[in-house]
Write a structure and sequence with these properties.
CATH class of one domain: Mainly Beta
Number of strands: 22
Structural class: alpha+beta
CATH architecture of one domain: Sandwich
Radius of gyration: 21 Å
Strand content: 25-35%
Oligomer: single chain
Largest sheet: 11 strands, antiparallel
């Protein structure tokens, strides 16, 4: 059985009111910022399945019969599939490893910080790797530029020996010093300097506006992707994309947000070196079927385009979202289900094989280590 899936909607202030509705045909009658739609079992927004006229939270369905849904006795989907529609920049952030998350979670518990406190950094014991795949042209900041390049862009900083000390120097600037830094960039006409000026208009007085001086500015085209592993400092700036992540709430923020900022912890866990942009090259498995291989167990992202694909010998739960056109799925010897742009589905582990006929584009998420 293949089940239609209704996502949870998240109306964060940075969301665009038009990107997701326009590209996926999802209604937004109140014209709210529609930042994200979630497909999964996250406690802050579980999806809902439709079956025989009844609507059931996916988390409840799995709890009732975990072996049918996940293939084992596990009651939690290890990943969360999202569509992001970015109207204004997200925070500068990075995510912990599973070890760092367990350590931080226990430390905050011992400190007596309530789990739902706005000043809580670690809300669970899981890591939060993620991949973002562009559906439209997509702008991001990701990973440190070489230290020498960052110093050339910010020559007024003192006592910079590595990337951690650079962050400390930036975040220690007084408002007057920050203003002098941005003033020195006014005659520089490069994409990263233009972005600093744009961020200054949105977040005046926030030292996070200097992030384009020390992070790689990345422009993704549709179908291109980035992998953000633990410790990689990043911020999404604009665009529509498919995000697939570990099912965790652990985000350590350093600026460009009204949410809780924990710069001391971010400096502790961030990767203290420059790096190449962590692009993910998709790999073709068959005509019209590609995957985005990443070195984590939590998830794997598939993309299906024009054509027919056979998925067999399955024993894991999969969640899919149609981003363009129309897709038909036929169970082995069973029924055919048709999904159009903006609709989604979940396939339980008990469905051993099916055929996908794609006249458009489809993204499917499953646990990692499987193709």
């Amino acid at each position: 059985m293949i089940y239609p899936l209704i996502p949870a909607q998240q109306h964060y202030s940075w969301g665009s009111s038009t990107l997701i509705p326009h590209h996926l045909g999802i209604e937004n009658p109140k014209n709210l910022p529609l930042a994200e739609i979630w497909f999964g079992t996250h406690p802050r927004g579980t999806s809902v399945i439709e079956h025989r006229g009844e609507k059931i939270p996916l988390s409840d369905a799995i709890n009732r019969d975990p072996r049918y849904w996940t293939g084992d006795e596990g009651e939690e989907v290890p990943f969360l599939l999202k569509i992001l529609g970015i109207g204004s920049p997200l925070s500068i952030q990075c995510h912990p490893s599973a070890y760092q998350a367990r350590e931080g979670y226990e430390r905050e518990n011992k400190a007596g910080i309530p789990l739902e406190s706005s000043r809580r950094t670690y809300r669970d014991t899981r890591g939060k790797p993620e991949i973002i795949c562009a559906l439209t042209p997509f702008t991001a900041l990701c990973g440190f530029v070489p230290l020498a390049e960052a110093i050339l862009r910010l020559p007024m900083l003192d006592h910079v020996e590595d990337h951690r000390s650079l962050l400390k120097a930036v975040w220690s600037l007084s408002p007057e010093e920050l203003a002098r830094c941005t003033n020195t960039l006014h005659n520089i006409h490069t994409p990263w300097a233009e972005l600093v000026r744009s961020l200054e208009r949105l977040y005046p007085g926030d030292p996070g506006i200097l992030a384009p001086c020390y992070l790689n500015l990345v422009q993704l085209e549709p179908g291109e992707a980035l992998f953000l592993d633990a410790g990689v400092l990043h911020a999404y700036m604009a665009g529509l994309g498919v995000e697939l992540m570990g099912n965790s709430d652990n985000v350590i923020r350093g600026g460009l947000t009204e949410k809780y900022i924990d710069r001391e912890e971010l400096q502790r866990i961030v990767h203290n070196s420059s790096s190449d942009v962590p692009s993910v090259d998709s790999v073709e498995l068959s005509s019209g079927h590609r995957i985005y291989p990443v070195p984590v167990e939590e998830f794997l992202l598939h993309r299906f385009s024009e054509g027919v694909s056979i998925c067999k010998d399955r024993d894991i739960l999969e969640i899919g979202c149609v981003t363009t056109g129309e897709v038909s799925l036929t169970e082995d010897g069973g029924d055919t289900f048709t999904f159009t742009k903006g609709s989604a589905f979940v396939i339980p582990a008990s469905c051993s094989s099916y055929e996908i006929s794609t006249d458009g584009e489809l993204y499917v998420a499953c646990a990692g280590g499987r193709t």
